[in-house]
Amino acid sequence: MKRVLVANRGEIAVRVMRTCRELGLETVAVHSSADADSMHVRMADRAVCIGPPPSAQSYLVAPALVAAALGTGADAIHPGYGFLSENADFARLCADQGVTFIGPSPEAIDLMGNKAAARQVAAQLEVPTVPGSKTPVRSCADALAAAKTVGYPVLLKASAGGGGRGMRVVQGESEMDAAWQDASREALAAFGDATLYVERRLSGVRHIEIQLLGDGGEGAVSLGHRDCSIQRRRQKLLEESPGPALSAALLQGMSDAALRIARHLRYSGAGTIEFVVTTEPAAFYFIEMNTRIQVEHPVTEMLTGVDIVAEQIRVANGEPMELTAGWDAPRSHAIECRINAESPTHGFRPSPGRIARWQPPGGPGVRVDSHCREGYVVQPFYDSMIAKVVVCAPDRDSAIRRMRRALSEFVVEGPDTTISFHLSLLSDPEFGAGKGHTTWVEDHFLARFQAGRGRI
Hints:
Blueprint: E1 3-6, H1 10-22, E2 26-32, H2 39-43, E3 46-51, H3 62-72, E4 76-78, H4 88-96, E5 100-101, H5 106-113, H6 115-124, H7 140-150, E6 154-158, E7 168-170, H8 176-191, E8 196-200, E9 206-215, E10 220-232, E11 235-241, H9 248-265, E12 268-279, E13 282-290, H10 297-304, H11 308-316, E14 333-340, E15 342-343, E16 349-350, E17 353-354, E18 357-359, E19 366-370, E20 377-378, E21 385-393, H12 396-409, E22 411-413, H13 419-426, H14 429-432, H15 440-451
Parallel strand pairs: 1-2, 1-4, 2-3, 4-5
Antiparallel strand pairs: 6-7, 6-8, 9-10, 9-12, 10-11, 11-14, 12-13, 14-21, 15-16, 17-20, 18-22, 19-21
Helix pairs in contact: 4-5, 12-13
Protein backbone atom coordinates (compact mmCIF):
# COMPACT_ATOMS: atom_id res chain seq x y z
CA MET A 1 0.00 0.00 0.00
CA LYS A 2 1.44 3.33 -1.09
CA ARG A 3 -1.47 5.73 -1.62
CA VAL A 4 -4.77 6.00 0.28
CA LEU A 5 -7.89 7.82 -0.88
CA VAL A 6 -9.91 9.14 2.06
CA ALA A 7 -13.57 8.88 1.12
CA ASN A 8 -14.78 11.46 3.60
CA ARG A 9 -14.54 15.09 4.66
CA GLY A 10 -14.09 17.23 7.77
CA GLU A 11 -12.16 16.28 10.86
CA ILE A 12 -12.12 12.53 10.21
CA ALA A 13 -10.53 13.04 6.79
CA VAL A 14 -7.85 15.23 8.40
CA ARG A 15 -7.31 12.70 11.18
CA VAL A 16 -6.87 9.75 8.78
CA MET A 17 -4.46 11.73 6.61
CA ARG A 18 -2.26 12.52 9.61
CA THR A 19 -1.78 8.83 10.34
CA CYS A 20 -1.18 8.07 6.66
CA ARG A 21 1.57 10.68 6.62
CA GLU A 22 3.19 9.13 9.71
CA LEU A 23 3.11 5.74 7.99
CA GLY A 24 4.74 7.15 4.86
CA LEU A 25 1.59 6.81 2.72
CA GLU A 26 0.48 9.37 0.15
CA THR A 27 -3.09 10.62 0.40
CA VAL A 28 -5.85 11.55 -2.01
CA ALA A 29 -8.68 13.84 -0.96
CA VAL A 30 -12.12 13.80 -2.53
CA HIS A 31 -14.35 16.79 -2.09
CA SER A 32 -17.58 18.39 -3.16
CA SER A 33 -17.43 21.77 -4.84
CA ALA A 34 -18.46 23.31 -1.50
CA ASP A 35 -15.42 21.77 0.21
CA ALA A 36 -12.80 22.82 -2.35
CA ASP A 37 -10.95 24.97 0.22
CA SER A 38 -11.24 22.52 3.12
CA MET A 39 -8.29 21.51 5.27
CA HIS A 40 -8.30 17.88 4.13
CA VAL A 41 -8.00 19.07 0.52
CA ARG A 42 -5.05 21.30 1.43
CA MET A 43 -3.35 18.48 3.34
CA ALA A 44 -3.64 15.77 0.69
CA ASP A 45 -1.01 14.98 -1.93
CA ARG A 46 -3.74 14.94 -4.56
CA ALA A 47 -7.38 16.03 -4.64
CA VAL A 48 -10.38 15.23 -6.84
CA CYS A 49 -13.70 17.07 -6.99
CA ILE A 50 -16.47 14.46 -7.13
CA GLY A 51 -19.55 16.66 -7.48
CA PRO A 52 -21.67 19.35 -5.88
CA PRO A 53 -23.35 19.28 -2.49
CA PRO A 54 -25.43 17.65 -1.07
CA SER A 55 -23.76 14.35 -0.21
CA ALA A 56 -26.05 12.34 -2.47
CA GLN A 57 -24.31 13.95 -5.43
CA SER A 58 -20.76 13.59 -4.12
CA TYR A 59 -19.65 11.73 -0.99
CA LEU A 60 -22.34 9.06 -1.38
CA VAL A 61 -21.61 8.27 -5.05
CA ALA A 62 -19.61 5.05 -4.79
CA PRO A 63 -18.61 4.80 -8.49
CA ALA A 64 -17.21 8.34 -8.39
CA LEU A 65 -15.11 7.53 -5.32
CA VAL A 66 -13.68 4.36 -6.84
CA ALA A 67 -13.05 6.14 -10.14
CA ALA A 68 -11.14 8.83 -8.24
CA ALA A 69 -9.03 6.13 -6.56
CA LEU A 70 -8.25 4.42 -9.87
CA GLY A 71 -7.54 7.71 -11.63
CA THR A 72 -5.03 8.81 -8.99
CA GLY A 73 -3.38 5.44 -8.53
CA ALA A 74 -4.64 4.93 -4.99
CA ASP A 75 -4.17 1.40 -3.65
CA ALA A 76 -6.75 1.70 -0.90
CA ILE A 77 -9.76 3.64 0.33
CA HIS A 78 -10.37 4.61 3.95
CA PRO A 79 -14.09 5.42 4.40
CA GLY A 80 -13.90 7.18 7.79
CA TYR A 81 -17.30 7.16 9.51
CA GLY A 82 -20.72 7.99 8.13
CA PHE A 83 -21.32 8.27 4.38
CA LEU A 84 -20.37 4.89 2.83
CA SER A 85 -18.32 3.53 5.73
CA GLU A 86 -20.87 0.79 6.50
CA ASN A 87 -22.02 0.15 2.94
CA ALA A 88 -21.23 -3.43 1.93
CA ASP A 89 -21.85 -2.72 -1.76
CA PHE A 90 -19.18 -0.02 -1.66
CA ALA A 91 -16.72 -2.45 -0.07
CA ARG A 92 -17.54 -5.00 -2.79
CA LEU A 93 -17.08 -2.42 -5.53
CA CYS A 94 -13.65 -1.56 -4.15
CA ALA A 95 -12.68 -5.24 -4.16
CA ASP A 96 -14.03 -5.76 -7.68
CA GLN A 97 -11.84 -2.91 -8.93
CA GLY A 98 -8.71 -4.08 -7.09
CA VAL A 99 -8.79 -1.31 -4.47
CA THR A 100 -8.31 -2.29 -0.82
CA PHE A 101 -11.20 -1.27 1.42
CA ILE A 102 -9.78 -0.32 4.83
CA GLY A 103 -12.45 -1.97 6.91
CA PRO A 104 -14.14 -5.32 7.55
CA SER A 105 -15.40 -7.75 4.94
CA PRO A 106 -18.59 -6.96 3.01
CA GLU A 107 -20.15 -10.02 4.65
CA ALA A 108 -19.50 -8.66 8.15
CA ILE A 109 -20.84 -5.24 7.16
CA ASP A 110 -23.98 -6.82 5.69
CA LEU A 111 -24.64 -9.04 8.68
CA MET A 112 -24.06 -6.50 11.42
CA GLY A 113 -25.57 -3.65 9.41
CA ASN A 114 -28.94 -5.38 9.65
CA LYS A 115 -29.75 -4.71 13.29
CA ALA A 116 -32.33 -7.48 13.50
CA ALA A 117 -29.86 -10.01 12.06
CA ALA A 118 -27.15 -8.72 14.42
CA ARG A 119 -29.45 -9.36 17.39
CA GLN A 120 -29.88 -12.94 16.18
CA VAL A 121 -26.09 -13.41 15.98
CA ALA A 122 -25.69 -12.06 19.50
CA ALA A 123 -28.40 -14.35 20.83
CA GLN A 124 -26.78 -17.39 19.16
CA LEU A 125 -23.53 -16.52 20.95
CA GLU A 126 -25.36 -16.19 24.28
CA VAL A 127 -24.87 -12.43 24.41
CA PRO A 128 -27.85 -10.81 26.19
CA THR A 129 -30.12 -8.73 23.94
CA VAL A 130 -32.87 -6.27 24.84
CA PRO A 131 -36.20 -8.13 24.80
CA GLY A 132 -37.82 -7.63 21.42
CA SER A 133 -38.92 -9.21 18.17
CA LYS A 134 -36.77 -12.15 17.13
CA THR A 135 -37.19 -11.30 13.43
CA PRO A 136 -37.89 -8.07 11.52
CA VAL A 137 -41.48 -6.81 11.51
CA ARG A 138 -42.74 -5.96 8.04
CA SER A 139 -46.17 -4.54 8.82
CA CYS A 140 -47.96 -2.56 11.50
CA ALA A 141 -49.90 -5.71 12.43
CA ASP A 142 -46.62 -7.58 12.98
CA ALA A 143 -45.32 -4.73 15.13
CA LEU A 144 -48.51 -4.74 17.25
CA ALA A 145 -48.19 -8.48 17.80
CA ALA A 146 -44.52 -8.17 18.79
CA ALA A 147 -45.21 -5.24 21.13
CA LYS A 148 -47.97 -7.22 22.85
CA THR A 149 -45.43 -9.95 23.62
CA VAL A 150 -42.60 -7.57 24.59
CA GLY A 151 -44.73 -5.15 26.62
CA TYR A 152 -45.07 -1.37 26.25
CA PRO A 153 -43.38 1.04 25.99
CA VAL A 154 -41.42 -0.17 22.97
CA LEU A 155 -39.05 1.23 20.39
CA LEU A 156 -39.54 0.80 16.66
CA LYS A 157 -36.03 0.70 15.17
CA ALA A 158 -34.72 0.56 11.61
CA SER A 159 -33.10 -2.79 10.82
CA ALA A 160 -30.60 -1.10 8.50
CA GLY A 161 -30.17 2.03 10.56
CA GLY A 162 -28.41 3.85 13.34
CA GLY A 163 -27.96 7.31 14.81
CA GLY A 164 -31.58 7.49 15.94
CA ARG A 165 -33.02 7.61 12.41
CA GLY A 166 -35.97 5.36 11.73
CA MET A 167 -36.63 5.10 15.47
CA ARG A 168 -39.85 5.92 17.33
CA VAL A 169 -41.05 5.46 20.91
CA VAL A 170 -44.46 3.80 21.18
CA GLN A 171 -46.15 4.14 24.57
CA GLY A 172 -49.26 2.13 23.73
CA GLU A 173 -51.25 0.35 21.05
CA SER A 174 -53.07 3.51 19.93
CA GLU A 175 -49.74 5.13 18.90
CA MET A 176 -48.44 2.23 16.83
CA ASP A 177 -49.95 3.04 13.43
CA ALA A 178 -48.61 6.61 13.27
CA ALA A 179 -45.24 5.57 14.69
CA TRP A 180 -45.00 2.71 12.19
CA GLN A 181 -45.67 5.03 9.27
CA ASP A 182 -43.17 7.64 10.45
CA ALA A 183 -40.38 5.20 11.32
CA SER A 184 -40.65 3.10 8.16
CA ARG A 185 -40.79 6.21 5.96
CA GLU A 186 -37.70 7.71 7.65
CA ALA A 187 -35.83 4.38 7.50
CA LEU A 188 -36.52 4.04 3.78
CA ALA A 189 -35.34 7.60 3.10
CA ALA A 190 -32.20 7.28 5.24
CA PHE A 191 -31.10 3.73 4.48
CA GLY A 192 -33.08 2.56 1.45
CA ASP A 193 -34.72 -0.11 3.63
CA ALA A 194 -38.02 0.34 5.49
CA THR A 195 -37.67 -2.84 7.56
CA LEU A 196 -38.14 -2.34 11.30
CA TYR A 197 -37.89 -4.39 14.47
CA VAL A 198 -39.42 -3.98 17.92
CA GLU A 199 -37.44 -3.60 21.12
CA ARG A 200 -38.55 -2.94 24.68
CA ARG A 201 -37.80 0.62 25.72
CA LEU A 202 -35.58 0.58 28.78
CA SER A 203 -35.47 3.83 30.75
CA GLY A 204 -32.60 5.32 32.70
CA VAL A 205 -30.00 3.19 30.92
CA ARG A 206 -26.35 3.85 30.21
CA HIS A 207 -24.88 3.51 26.72
CA ILE A 208 -21.55 1.65 26.88
CA GLU A 209 -19.43 0.55 23.93
CA ILE A 210 -16.45 -1.78 23.62
CA GLN A 211 -13.67 -0.85 21.17
CA LEU A 212 -12.40 -3.86 19.21
CA LEU A 213 -9.60 -4.61 16.78
CA GLY A 214 -9.61 -7.80 14.71
CA ASP A 215 -7.04 -9.36 12.40
CA GLY A 216 -9.52 -11.00 10.03
CA GLY A 217 -9.05 -14.42 11.66
CA GLU A 218 -9.38 -15.67 15.21
CA GLY A 219 -7.36 -12.77 16.60
CA ALA A 220 -9.35 -9.99 18.24
CA VAL A 221 -8.54 -7.66 21.13
CA SER A 222 -10.54 -5.25 23.24
CA LEU A 223 -9.23 -1.75 23.92
CA GLY A 224 -11.65 -1.16 26.75
CA HIS A 225 -14.92 0.72 26.93
CA ARG A 226 -16.41 4.19 26.45
CA ASP A 227 -19.45 5.62 28.22
CA CYS A 228 -21.58 7.46 25.63
CA SER A 229 -24.63 8.07 27.82
CA ILE A 230 -24.71 11.87 27.53
CA GLN A 231 -27.01 12.29 24.54
CA ARG A 232 -29.68 14.54 23.11
CA ARG A 233 -32.26 13.03 20.80
CA ARG A 234 -30.14 9.88 20.67
CA GLN A 235 -27.14 11.87 19.39
CA LYS A 236 -23.99 11.61 21.48
CA LEU A 237 -22.70 14.86 23.00
CA LEU A 238 -19.96 13.77 25.41
CA GLU A 239 -18.08 10.49 25.81
CA GLU A 240 -15.75 9.35 28.57
CA SER A 241 -13.76 6.40 29.84
CA PRO A 242 -13.86 4.80 32.27
CA GLY A 243 -17.58 5.21 32.81
CA PRO A 244 -18.51 6.17 36.38
CA ALA A 245 -19.86 3.47 38.74
CA LEU A 246 -19.40 0.49 36.40
CA SER A 247 -18.23 -2.66 38.15
CA ALA A 248 -15.22 -4.61 36.95
CA ALA A 249 -17.41 -7.71 36.58
CA LEU A 250 -19.92 -5.89 34.36
CA LEU A 251 -17.17 -4.46 32.16
CA GLN A 252 -15.47 -7.84 31.87
CA GLY A 253 -18.77 -9.41 30.84
CA MET A 254 -19.29 -6.84 28.08
CA SER A 255 -15.71 -7.20 26.85
CA ASP A 256 -15.97 -11.00 26.72
CA ALA A 257 -19.29 -10.79 24.88
CA ALA A 258 -17.91 -8.31 22.34
CA LEU A 259 -14.89 -10.52 21.68
CA ARG A 260 -17.13 -13.55 21.11
CA ILE A 261 -18.94 -11.64 18.39
CA ALA A 262 -15.73 -10.35 16.77
CA ARG A 263 -14.13 -13.80 16.70
CA HIS A 264 -17.30 -15.39 15.34
CA LEU A 265 -17.26 -12.87 12.47
CA ARG A 266 -13.50 -13.26 11.91
CA TYR A 267 -13.61 -9.49 12.10
CA SER A 268 -11.03 -7.32 10.37
CA GLY A 269 -9.98 -3.87 11.57
CA ALA A 270 -11.73 -1.52 14.00
CA GLY A 271 -15.26 -2.10 15.22
CA THR A 272 -17.42 -1.25 18.19
CA ILE A 273 -20.01 -3.33 20.04
CA GLU A 274 -22.65 -1.18 21.73
CA PHE A 275 -24.60 -2.13 24.85
CA VAL A 276 -27.19 -0.57 27.10
CA VAL A 277 -26.64 -1.06 30.83
CA THR A 278 -29.25 -1.09 33.57
CA THR A 279 -28.38 -0.33 37.17
CA GLU A 280 -31.09 -2.13 39.16
CA PRO A 281 -30.36 -4.89 38.56
CA ALA A 282 -26.94 -4.35 37.00
CA ALA A 283 -27.12 -5.96 33.56
CA PHE A 284 -26.02 -5.33 30.00
CA TYR A 285 -27.75 -5.91 26.66
CA PHE A 286 -26.33 -5.90 23.13
CA ILE A 287 -27.90 -3.30 20.82
CA GLU A 288 -25.67 -3.12 17.71
CA MET A 289 -22.23 -3.28 16.15
CA ASN A 290 -20.67 -0.39 14.25
CA THR A 291 -18.36 -1.81 11.57
CA ARG A 292 -16.18 1.30 11.27
CA ILE A 293 -14.16 3.73 13.29
CA GLN A 294 -16.23 5.78 15.76
CA VAL A 295 -16.39 9.54 16.17
CA GLU A 296 -15.27 9.07 19.78
CA HIS A 297 -12.26 6.83 19.07
CA PRO A 298 -9.81 9.51 20.39
CA VAL A 299 -11.03 8.77 23.93
CA THR A 300 -9.56 5.28 23.64
CA GLU A 301 -6.44 6.51 21.88
CA MET A 302 -5.74 8.99 24.68
CA LEU A 303 -5.99 6.23 27.30
CA THR A 304 -4.13 3.47 25.47
CA GLY A 305 -1.65 5.25 23.21
CA VAL A 306 -2.88 3.02 20.35
CA ASP A 307 -3.37 4.67 16.94
CA ILE A 308 -6.59 2.92 15.88
CA VAL A 309 -6.41 4.23 12.31
CA ALA A 310 -2.87 2.88 11.96
CA GLU A 311 -4.09 -0.53 13.14
CA GLN A 312 -6.90 -0.41 10.57
CA ILE A 313 -4.39 0.27 7.82
CA ARG A 314 -1.97 -2.44 8.96
CA VAL A 315 -4.67 -5.11 9.02
CA ALA A 316 -6.04 -4.04 5.63
CA ASN A 317 -2.50 -4.23 4.24
CA GLY A 318 -2.11 -7.82 5.43
CA GLU A 319 0.23 -6.94 8.28
CA PRO A 320 -0.16 -8.22 11.85
CA MET A 321 -1.69 -5.98 14.47
CA GLU A 322 0.86 -4.40 16.76
CA LEU A 323 -1.47 -5.11 19.66
CA THR A 324 -1.79 -8.85 20.25
CA ALA A 325 -3.09 -9.05 23.82
CA GLY A 326 -5.89 -7.52 25.80
CA TRP A 327 -5.55 -4.15 27.44
CA ASP A 328 -5.74 -3.55 31.18
CA ALA A 329 -8.20 -1.22 32.87
CA PRO A 330 -7.23 2.45 32.53
CA ARG A 331 -5.29 4.21 35.25
CA SER A 332 -6.40 7.61 33.99
CA HIS A 333 -9.57 9.23 32.65
CA ALA A 334 -10.44 10.70 29.23
CA ILE A 335 -13.38 12.85 28.14
CA GLU A 336 -14.42 14.01 24.67
CA CYS A 337 -16.79 16.91 23.96
CA ARG A 338 -18.27 17.31 20.50
CA ILE A 339 -18.34 20.99 19.55
CA ASN A 340 -21.06 21.77 17.01
CA ALA A 341 -21.89 24.93 15.09
CA GLU A 342 -25.29 25.18 16.77
CA SER A 343 -27.08 27.59 19.09
CA PRO A 344 -27.83 25.64 22.29
CA THR A 345 -29.95 28.47 23.71
CA HIS A 346 -32.20 28.37 20.62
CA GLY A 347 -33.04 24.69 20.49
CA PHE A 348 -29.65 23.73 19.02
CA ARG A 349 -30.45 25.53 15.79
CA PRO A 350 -27.68 25.01 13.18
CA SER A 351 -25.37 27.99 12.80
CA PRO A 352 -23.35 27.77 9.59
CA GLY A 353 -21.16 30.64 8.41
CA ARG A 354 -17.67 32.07 8.28
CA ILE A 355 -15.34 31.65 11.26
CA ALA A 356 -13.93 35.10 11.99
CA ARG A 357 -11.67 33.94 14.83
CA TRP A 358 -10.44 30.47 15.72
CA GLN A 359 -8.24 29.83 18.75
CA PRO A 360 -8.32 26.19 19.90
CA PRO A 361 -7.04 25.17 23.34
CA GLY A 362 -3.81 23.37 24.13
CA GLY A 363 -1.67 22.42 27.08
CA PRO A 364 -1.04 19.14 28.91
CA GLY A 365 -3.40 16.30 28.14
CA VAL A 366 -5.47 18.19 25.54
CA ARG A 367 -6.19 17.03 21.98
CA VAL A 368 -8.29 18.88 19.41
CA ASP A 369 -9.44 17.13 16.23
CA SER A 370 -10.85 19.61 13.74
CA HIS A 371 -10.88 20.72 10.13
CA CYS A 372 -11.55 24.38 10.89
CA ARG A 373 -9.45 27.54 10.84
CA GLU A 374 -9.97 31.29 10.73
CA GLY A 375 -11.78 32.20 7.53
CA TYR A 376 -13.25 28.72 7.05
CA VAL A 377 -16.94 28.66 6.14
CA VAL A 378 -18.99 26.08 8.04
CA GLN A 379 -21.23 24.62 5.35
CA PRO A 380 -24.98 24.11 5.82
CA PHE A 381 -24.96 20.86 3.82
CA TYR A 382 -23.21 18.58 6.31
CA ASP A 383 -23.00 17.57 9.96
CA SER A 384 -22.54 20.59 12.21
CA MET A 385 -19.60 19.23 14.24
CA ILE A 386 -16.61 21.56 13.96
CA ALA A 387 -14.27 20.06 16.56
CA LYS A 388 -13.74 17.34 19.12
CA VAL A 389 -11.95 18.39 22.29
CA VAL A 390 -10.45 15.44 24.16
CA VAL A 391 -8.62 15.55 27.49
CA CYS A 392 -6.85 12.96 29.61
CA ALA A 393 -6.03 13.32 33.31
CA PRO A 394 -5.27 11.06 36.29
CA ASP A 395 -8.90 10.74 37.44
CA ARG A 396 -12.43 11.84 36.52
CA ASP A 397 -12.53 14.97 38.68
CA SER A 398 -9.26 16.26 37.27
CA ALA A 399 -10.37 15.36 33.72
CA ILE A 400 -13.54 17.42 34.20
CA ARG A 401 -11.49 20.34 35.48
CA ARG A 402 -9.07 20.00 32.55
CA MET A 403 -11.92 19.95 30.04
CA ARG A 404 -13.47 23.05 31.59
CA ARG A 405 -10.11 24.80 31.38
CA ALA A 406 -9.66 23.74 27.76
CA LEU A 407 -13.15 24.82 26.69
CA SER A 408 -12.79 28.16 28.46
CA GLU A 409 -9.72 28.79 26.25
CA PHE A 410 -11.52 27.80 23.04
CA VAL A 411 -12.38 30.95 21.06
CA VAL A 412 -14.73 30.69 18.07
CA GLU A 413 -16.19 33.87 16.62
CA GLY A 414 -18.76 33.79 13.84
CA PRO A 415 -21.03 30.76 14.14
CA ASP A 416 -22.71 29.96 17.44
CA THR A 417 -21.26 26.87 19.11
CA THR A 418 -22.11 24.39 21.85
CA ILE A 419 -19.10 25.36 23.98
CA SER A 420 -21.30 27.13 26.54
CA PHE A 421 -23.55 24.08 26.76
CA HIS A 422 -20.60 21.81 27.54
CA LEU A 423 -19.18 24.21 30.12
CA SER A 424 -22.53 24.28 31.89
CA LEU A 425 -22.85 20.49 31.63
CA LEU A 426 -19.40 19.91 33.11
CA SER A 427 -20.33 22.16 36.07
CA ASP A 428 -23.59 20.36 36.80
CA PRO A 429 -23.56 18.48 40.16
CA GLU A 430 -25.53 15.53 38.79
CA PHE A 431 -23.07 15.06 35.94
CA GLY A 432 -20.20 15.37 38.39
CA ALA A 433 -21.80 12.65 40.50
CA GLY A 434 -21.98 10.34 37.48
CA LYS A 435 -25.79 10.25 37.32
CA GLY A 436 -26.05 10.69 33.54
CA HIS A 437 -28.02 8.27 31.36
CA THR A 438 -29.29 8.33 27.78
CA THR A 439 -32.24 10.65 28.46
CA TRP A 440 -30.77 12.58 31.40
CA VAL A 441 -29.95 15.66 29.31
CA GLU A 442 -33.53 16.00 28.10
CA ASP A 443 -35.21 14.82 31.30
CA HIS A 444 -33.17 16.87 33.76
CA PHE A 445 -30.33 19.04 32.50
CA LEU A 446 -31.78 21.03 29.58
CA ALA A 447 -34.33 22.83 31.76
CA ARG A 448 -31.58 24.02 34.09
CA PHE A 449 -29.40 25.07 31.16
CA GLN A 450 -32.20 26.97 29.43
CA ALA A 451 -33.18 28.67 32.69
CA GLY A 452 -29.66 30.04 32.88
CA ARG A 453 -29.71 30.86 29.13
CA GLY A 454 -26.31 29.22 28.79
CA ARG A 455 -24.64 31.16 31.59
CA ILE A 456 -21.98 29.27 33.52
